[in-house]
Design brief:
The protein is α+β, with helices and mostly antiparallel strands. It has 2 domains: 120 residues, MutM-like, N-terminal (N-terminal domain of MutM-like DNA repair proteins, Alpha-Beta Barrel), CATH 3.20.190; 124 residues, Helicase, Ruva Protein, domain 3 (Orthogonal Bundle), CATH 1.10.8. It has 7 helices and 10 strands. The strands form 3 sheets. The chain has a 4-stranded antiparallel β-sheet with strand order 1-6-7-5, with helices on one face. Strands 2-3-4-8 form a 4-stranded antiparallel β-sheet, with helices on one face. It has a two-stranded antiparallel ribbon with strand order 9-10. A hairpin with a 2-residue loop joins strand 2 and strand 3. Helix 3 packs across helix 6 and helix 5 crosses helix 6. It is globular, with a radius of gyration of 20 Å.
Length: 270
């Protein structure tokens, strides 16, 4: 699933070609939004919020997409051959000089911009780790709120209502970097540990928001070909201590977590 850094780069790339231009054509696969309502409107903003991409129009409408596992936005020149079959296009926006196509996204919807603040999929989101106005205090409070206090920290970090933008890669890499057991309960972790996790996750996401080659390791490790510490490396030696990395499913829905049983054995639990 694309994570916050991917959506940030996607919004940045689309913004250059879409903002300030009038929609000359729009189609959507049905059942789906009424794309014809967008024709004639001018695009005024393209933004990412967590794992959501929002395209706003001067007509007061807003297009929201969530890419989940397989979705992607592409930008083409008029007449250029698409890299995915047209049948997989969920919505197509045409503006002078560019065609923006959203493929395979399971969530494509139109709403009024004024309703954004109360639209559940957006309104429930926690602070966006990539936002310049990121509220760390709010994020930490949400991690400790309600049922999350009893969750494994790996599950809580993925809860977009606590903080928005973290996916499976950044969850594993953040916990490894801070030597925290993925299955430690949030309520058992000291405040300073939660602060370190939030800050590390934000640092990693921000470091990757302008490059398509995601790297969470050191420059030396990346130069040697190791761009991720533990994600997807179960069964291999830990890059820090040499123990064999293990994997286990966590949370609901269950997601595969990879970690070092020696480096991350719960030393930070209270």
């Amino acid at each position: 699933m694309p994570e916050g850094d991917t959506l940030y780069r996607t919004a940045t790339a689309l913004r250059v070609h879409l903002v300030g231009r009038r929609v000359t054509g729009a189609t959507a696969r049905q059942p789906g939004p009424r794309a014809d309502l967008l024709v004639g409107a001018t695009i005024v903003a393209v933004e990412s919020i967590g794992k959501n991409l929002l395209v706003r129009f001067d007509s007061g409408l807003e297009l929201r997409t969530h890419l989940r596992m397989r979705g992607a936005w592409h930008r083409y020149r008029p007449g250029e051959r698409w890299r995915r079959p047209a049948a997989r296009a969920r919505i197509v926006l045409e503006v002078p000089g560019s065609v923006a196509v959203c493929f395979d996204a399971p969530v494509v919807e139109l709403l009024e911009t004024r309703a954004e603040a109360v639209h559940p999929p957006i309104a429930r989101l926690g602070p966006d780790l990539l936002s310049d106005d990121f509220d760390e205090h709010d994020a930490l409070g949400r991690l400790r709120a309600g049922a999350r206090v009893g969750m494994p920290i790996a599950q809580a970090l993925l809860d977009q209502a606590a903080l928005a933008g973290i996916g499976n890669v950044y969850c594993d890499e953040t916990l490894f970097a801070e030597r925290v057991d993925p299955f430690a309960r949030v309520g058992d972790l000291p405040d300073d540990t939660l602060e370190r996790l939030v800050r590390r996750a934000r640092t990693l996401l921000r470091a990757n928001r302008v490059t398509a080659i995601r790297t969470t390791t050191t420059p030396a490790a990346a130069a040697a070909g190791r761009r991720l510490w533990v994600y997807g490396r179960a069964g291999r030696p830990c890059p820090r201590c040499g123990a064999i990395l293990v994997a286990r499913r966590c949370g609901e829905p269950p997601r595969r977590r990879t970690w070092c049983p020696r480096c991350q054995r719960g030393a930070d639990a209270g």
